[in-house]
């Protein structure tokens, strides 16, 4: 139970007993370099609503948030009676592979190190995962390894929520922090932009999660494709 706390002191990991450092204040550097824009807006999320629909009648579930620990998400999910583990996926990606768009993410040793830092959990450990938009920053070799690891650490019939930008012509995509306001409402804080490692259409997303039971899409007005994946 206390093992996830081992990374709390380096600001990368937190378990159900605590959270990591507070989000960056305006003017600090984002994980991708440059200055954080801190553009904030609140909007409805059908994907988030769908995610909570599947867990609302149960308590004591174990949820993983790959967006890094923030008090709002911790309070909301634990307030529903669930345990929350947080991983600052993007920050650890930056620390492992660097921030350049051309960074090579195919080195097997670095991939294994990254998985050890972010997804080092027992098989079937989680009942749900909030992936957010983190997968867009992973090149093919690393992305495949991450998806395979996620498939291992989630329980059968569990759910994951992931976001993908729908416009395949974008040279750079916004980097967001996602905070849960209500069961179907999100606060998005844009902290800058970065060139994605790859962008995905519906077919490629379905292929990416081919080992999972089902994939369901919701398209938002921000051209964010919200995806519910059932294990």
Task: Give your account of this protein's structure.
β5, α5 and β6 (154-165) form a beta-alpha-beta unit. Helices cover 25% and strands 30% of the residues. α3 (89-97) packs antiparallel against α4 (108-118). It contains 6 helices and 10 strands, in the order ββαβαβααβαβββαββ. The two termini are 24 Å apart. It has a domain at 45-168 and 198-230: Rossmann fold, CATH 3.40.50.150. It has helices spanning 46-53, 71-79, 89-97, 108-118, 140-153, 202-208; strands at residues 13-14, 39-44, 62-65, 83-87, 126-132, 154-165, 173-182, 185-194, 214-219, 224-230. The longest helix is centred in the middle third of the chain and has 14 residues, at 140-153.
Task: Offer a quick outline of the entry.
It is built from six helices and ten strands; from the N terminus they run E-E-H-E-H-E-H-H-E-H-E-E-E-H-E-E. With 231 residues, it is α/β, with parallel strands linked by helices. Strand 7 and strand 8 form a beta hairpin.
């Amino acid at each position: 139970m206390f093992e996830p706390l081992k990374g709390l002191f380096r600001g990368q990991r937190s378990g159900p007993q605590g959270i990591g450092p507070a989000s960056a204040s305006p003017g600090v550097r984002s994980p991708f370099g440059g200055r954080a824009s801190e553009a904030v807006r609140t909007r409805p999320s059908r994907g988030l609503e769908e995610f909570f629909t599947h867990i609302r009648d149960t308590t004591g579930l174990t949820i993983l948030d790959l967006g890094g620990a923030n008090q709002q998400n911790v309070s909301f999910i634990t307030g529903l009676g669930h345990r929350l583990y947080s991983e600052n996926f993007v920050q650890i990606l930056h620390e492992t592979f660097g921030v350049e768009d051309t960074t090579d993410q195919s080195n097997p040793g670095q991939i294994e190190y990254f998985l050890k830092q972010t997804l080092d959990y027992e098989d079937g450990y989680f009942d749900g995962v909030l992936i957010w938009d983190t997968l867009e920053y992973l090149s093919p070799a690393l992305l495949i390894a991450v998806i395979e690891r996620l498939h291992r650490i989630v329980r059968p019939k569990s759910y994951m929520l992931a976001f993908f930008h729908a416009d395949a012509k974008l040279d750079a995509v916004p980097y967001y922090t996602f905070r849960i306001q209500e069961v179907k409402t999100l606060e998005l804080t844009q902290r800058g932009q970065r060139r994605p490692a790859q962008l995905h259409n519906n077919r490629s997303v379905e292929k990416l999660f081919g080992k999972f039971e089902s994939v369901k899409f919701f398209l938002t007005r921000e051209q964010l494709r919200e995806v519910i994946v059932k294990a």
